[in-house]
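With this grant's support, the team has encoded backbone shapes as discrete tokens. A representative record is reproduced below.
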Amino acid sequence: MDQYTSAMSGDRLSAGPVAPNSGAPASAPHARVQAPNPISSAPVAPSSSAPSDSRADPRAVDAVAARLQRDRLARAGQAPWLHEDVAQRMLERLPLIRRQPGRIVLSSALLGGGHEGLRALYPQARQQWWEHRPLALERAGALHRRPGLGALWGSLRGAPTVQVLPAPPPGEAELLWSNMELHAEADKAALLSRWQQALAVDGFLMFSCLGPDSLVELRPLFEQAGWGDPAPQWTDMHDLGDLLVQAGFADPVMDQEHVRLTWGRAEDLLRDLRALGGNLAPGRHAGLRTPRWHGRLLAALETLRGADGRLAMTLELVYGHAFKAQPRLKVQPETSVSLDQMRAMVRRPSDKT
């Protein structure tokens, strides 16, 4: 398996044949990423595993904690180190779709990353950064008000400028890009609905997020010690596919891969995980932790050392793409059709793949 040294500072990063990420990290990670398991991919089939009571759902996300986490990460002004690597993996999937989008909306672009790779793939496309939180909107706006030499050179060559918006115009995006955002959203159905509304007919969605096997090694440690939940158990890719269909998307395809991260020191492991966010589980321990507890946690993490002497942690990365289909009218004795709906129905469909 090919190896490379990441552009990120810190420990050597080993992985499959993935190109180094193009942006500077928000922190210097100490993790080593080992070769991922083979990717599994499948069209979405309906599932019936969603619990009926969200309060008892181990996949639930604390909405208040999620907002606070996004604000904390936004203060860094750039995407966390792992997000840049996952964005590169997403970019490698885009050539499978033949359509060349002219307008790209990046949902939570400041923390998602990947905008430079999208610019390289689609140099004439107009990018709109959709920032859902006021602090991220402010930081992203400041970033583009102070362009560097690369942005100046791009403007001299006629490359489209980047717009930073609290919400994009409805029905105009030809590609909606979201990287490592959906898993930390408390109301996933509402976010998917907003994405669908932002897309033009035949526009497509590309997204990534964490899956339920992420940080699975922490669950028995926390359960045995009575420390509450270390993280939500996140949403399975099949359930995400169901949500896509319910939101009005067509032809959703989901795939996933497992990535194994390893560290030399427990302190570095905790530092890197904090740089990615925080514990969003409603069942997490309430209140502040003590230095004594921190020492117990470090001791518990030592049990994760493998035969190579390194601490190991698993991440499940979930990828999805889907299209916005032409609207379908319900058959009734009398049906009203708006001018916009009529235009969408008679518009010539474009190639999707």
Q: What stands out?
A: Residues 33-50+57-212+233-259+318-346 form a domain with the Rossmann fold fold (CATH 3.40.50.150). Residues 1-28, 35-42, 44-54, 348-352 have pLDDT under 50 and may be disordered. The longest helix spans residues 63-74. The chain has twelve helices and nine strands.
